Amino acid sequence: MTQFDLPLDQLRTYRSASVEPEDFDAFWAKTLGEARTHALDARFEAVPTGLSTVETFDVTFAGFDGQPVKGWFVLPAGTSQPLPVVVEFLGYGGGRGLPHTHLLWASAGFAHFVMDTRGQGSGWATGDTPDPVGSAPSFPGFMTRGVEDPYTYYYRRLFTDAVRAVEAARSHPLVDASRTAVTGVSQGGGITLAVAGLVRNLVAVAADVPFLCDFPRATTVTDRAPYREIGSYLKTHRGRVALVRETLSYFDGVHFAARASAPALFSTALEDLTCPPSTVFAAFNAYAGDEKAIEVYDFNDHEGGGAFQQAAQLRWLPGRLRG
């Protein structure tokens, strides 16, 4: 693997050609308004893990259309006063997995809420949340489910779940709702940017090698999955390019970034064929917050910074959460 995208100096000024829909804000206001007609009904049930340093809760809350979404909620053992909370979203194909695998942010002294990903959870970590909504014919995976219309597209449901996950986390009595951060890797990073553009009063946004950004470039500059699912769909469904691009424009991280204001830490890798660096920089350069930074890993693929990026987040995030 070698660096294949734009040179770094061009990446730092690159802007996406993604066209923002005129009714972008109205679409999301309507979507979230409909979701909030359902009671959040966030339930937290303590589960044994065999760990003595944390307390873990099995979470269920109402996501899109009131449909139940699972999660984990982890606290430092013995917590008695409200803590800042880190809400985490997961990478493509994975689910919430087993509770003992989520230790980082509670070990740093924060509440940690991990949202399960509807319909996923059979790729690299198990999931417990079905997606009961059907779809017209689509290419295997999630990228083209319901892609004929933004109202039926899979990521409308998932991004709505994510906004409701923040609301569920903030509803817990041991969470200081005024100190909420969101984070995720890859698909989780893309969801993080969506939430950053849709939820007010966040104190930090950490989007690691984010997916779901700059669809016009991503779908033509790389042939690696999951973006390739879109090309494979269009290879069969000839003549739907404009239709699909219009749908995807409602879910492009570039447009959410343009509405976000919380301090942000991004990361990208210059050999990343899954989330090409130009697509990450497209979101970073569009990000509206005054305080933003990006870590660049020159010789890495989609693993990005890995544990090094976690270390960067551990240096950066506590100062924002503790204020």
UniProtKB/TrEMBL annotation:
SUPFAM superfamilies: alpha/beta-Hydrolases
InterPro entries per record: AB_hydrolase_fold (IPR029058), AXE1_dom (IPR008391), CE7 (IPR039069)
Coiled coil (UniProt feature): none
Name of a matching Pfam family: AXE1
Superkingdom of origin: Bacteria
Residue span(s) of domain Acetyl xylan esterase: 1-317
Protein name: Acetylxylan esterase
Species of origin: Streptomyces flavochromogenes
